[in-house]
Specification:
By secondary structure, this protein is mainly α. 59% of the residues lie in helices and 6% in strands.
């Protein structure tokens, strides 16, 4: 469903933007009439084609967002899966930016009803998905971690539009703004943790061995696609590559092939990988050296 929403929204908003650009070009009558006839004929044909396609994409896109709104209200756990939640948050943030961000005027077209485009209703549905998942800690963190599209100002502008247009009740708007407060707190925590990882230049010369040790950990314990420590390693049967289960599940949502050799693959085909203790590096605050730290678990280092 998330793939469908992403594709349909991308296509519909892209075509609406192109329609807007052609209509603006045609509205400047002096400049438009000065263009060669062949150019004008071609642009008019492009406009008719875009209008035909856009109405289909906007209709399907809105219907899919409505389904997402219903499903997130009824059941939340499936959307909090590691391979889902980050993509969902990024998709919602991106579309919120398109609807209320700096470029929202690019979606302004003549006769939007003819194109089945109702931006107010679409904004209301997207905000409702945020509200449906606002009590989920994993979703809050996912939105906070979206460095591409998330901005506090977008939610504040969306809340203002929702209030003026009657899209949401005052209680819902208050809950949306409370959600933004939680996201900002999570974002501040993430940034503080990143700052703790910064090491003064005068200590870097003492860390060569530590970085070599980190390289060892990276080679043996890092997911080859995400470069994060694997929590649940699995083996892809064809390429024999080891990576984290959440990574390959996320990949298979949009591509049913092994990412390393393009062989057909389903999640049921993967083989449980070598089991090892979760490892992380702790910084010694006295000499800034790293040491391995293992968490107790009934697991073998290697299978």
């Amino acid at each position: 469903m998330i793939n469908d929403v992403t594709y349909l929204m991308d296509e519909s908003l892209s075509e609406l933007t192109q329609i807007h650009n052609i209509q603006v070009e045609m509205d400047d009558r002096v400049t438009w009439n000065a263009k060669p006839q062949e150019y004008r004929r071609e642009r008019e044909g492009t406009l008719r084609s875009l209008e035909r396609h856009a109405s289909g994409y906007t209709t399907l896109g809105r219907s899919t967002v409505e389904l997402l709104k219903v499903f997130t209200a009824e059941t939340k756990a499936p959307f909090m899966m590691p391979e889902i939640v980050d993509r969902l948050a990024a998709m919602l943030d991106y579309n919120l930016d398109a609807l209320v961000g700096p470029k929202c005027q690019d979606l302004k077209v003549r006769e939007p009803d003819k194109l089945k485009f109702n931006p107010k209703a679409l904004l209301g549905d997207i905000l409702q998905v945020f509200l449906n998942l606002s009590d989920q800690g994993d979703f809050v963190k996912a939105v906070a971690g979206d460095g591409r599209s998330y901005r506090k100002e977008l939610f504040e502008r969306a809340a203002d539009i929702a209030r003026r247009r009657g899209l949401k009740s005052e209680t819902e708007i208050e809950n949306l703004l409370l959600f933004v407060v939680k996201v900002e707190e999570a974002k501040a925590t993430m940034e503080a943790e990143d700052d703790l990882g910064e090491i003064p230049d005068e200590f870097l010369g003492n860390l060569l061995f530590s970085f070599m040790f980190q390289g060892f950990l990276t080679n043996y314990f890092a997911d080859p696609l995400m470069f994060t420590v694997m929590r649940d390693p699995v083996i892809l049967p064809s390429s024999r590559t080891i990576l984290d289960r959440s990574t390959i599940k996320s990949h298979l949502l949009s591509d049913s092939k092994d990412p390393f050799n393009r062989a057909p693959l389903s999640i049921n085909d993967v083989i449980p990988g070598p089991l090892f203790l979760p490892i992380r590096c702790e910084v010694n605050t006295t000499d800034l050296s790293f040491r391995p730290h293992t968490q107790s678990a009934d697991r073998n280092f290697l299978d």
